[in-house]
Write a structure and sequence with these properties.
The structure is a single chain. By secondary structure, this protein is an all-alpha fold. The protein is built from 6 helices and no strands. The protein folds into 2 domains: about 90 residues, no CATH class; about 30 residues, no CATH class. The longest helix is centred in the N-terminal third of the chain and has 28 residues.
Length: about 160
């Protein structure tokens, strides 16, 4: 076999392989295999209404910047010991936890989980923080509270009744 014939077979094989891969990918997209997704078929996030009257910022601003606000709050809390502020994760959970399960991440329809799944973003807040409302709340204290007793005694009474 002539020397030039051996060298010309490899590029032809490569071209055939590339052509077959392109044809297969085109057929998968156009053949109705479910790989083709249009904008109308993408499931939108489910956002429950919040418990509060109004968010600390405009919803469009919060969608875009909530992670920066939480990072700033994290720095204030961890490095400076400041545990107050309207951008605390605890305050967010207090307003946005689901009425069904009290969580922002437990189900795919919960507030944080639904948007982060839609955006394909991993939530790492809840590796350290609880994603649920605490079981003992101020409402429980208010309903069982005695204005004449110290708050610590009232809290002990509520905890004892819940156990």
């Amino acid at each position: 076999m002539p020397r030039f014939a051996v060298h010309s077979v490899r590029p032809v094989r490569l071209l055939i392989s590339i052509g077959l891969m392109l044809a297969a990918s085109h057929a998968a997209l156009a053949g109705g295999t479910g790989a083709q997704v249009t904008a109308g078929q993408v499931p939108q996030p489910v956002i429950e209404s919040a418990r509060g009257d109004k968010c600390v910022e405009d919803p469009a601003f919060m969608r875009r910047n909530h992670m920066e606000l939480l990072k700033h709050q994290r720095d204030d809390t961890l490095r400076r010991g400041i545990r107050t502020g309207s951008y605390s994760l605890k305050a967010c959970i207090g307003c946005h936890a689901s009425k069904a399960n009290g969580s922002v991440t437990e189900a795919s329809t919960n507030f944080c989980q639904s948007c982060h799944s839609y955006a394909a973003v991993k939530i790492d807040c809840f590796e350290c923080h609880a994603g649920k409302l605490p079981q003992t709340s101020l409402e429980a204290l208010a309903s069982h509270g005695d204005p004449g007793q110290p708050l610590s005694l009232q809290l002990r009474r509520v905890l004892a009744q819940q156990q």
